[in-house]
Amino acid sequence: MNKPIASIDVGRAALRMALTATREEEDRLKEHLRQEGFKAAAVDFGGEFLPSIKKIVERAVVASERQNIVTDTHVGAGTVAGAAHEALEQMMAKAIGFNVGGKIGIARHGEHLCVAVYMSVGVLNLNELGVGMAHRSLAGID
Length: 142
Fold this sequence. Notes:
The protein is α+β, with helices and mostly antiparallel strands. It is built from five helices and four strands; from the N terminus they run ααβαααβββ. About 45% of the residues lie in helices and about 30% in strands.
């Protein structure tokens, strides 16, 4: 008997996408997730944290639309943007004033959409690590 996919499973898929180290690994995982009924994408980012927030959110939205995770509507874009912003907010206290670099992973299954951020925070080679994650519900076909 197959267990239904829950939000925690979608979050796990988004985090796995964010943890991929290479484009090839990302593509393999995306295909594996597709076979399980997920839609997924990932995007690299880097720069000074505060000025980069807008760019990171925009990249997440564009990647989600290009990979058909959401439609090119204000509902789809707003869902991804809101979840990406919330995931980044979870890193804010650690990252303000520092450079960051990492990857944002997006996954969707049915009405569940999750965004996960995995990043390195620091100056020079003195880095800290962090993860942020957020979930949104998106009714049927957005």
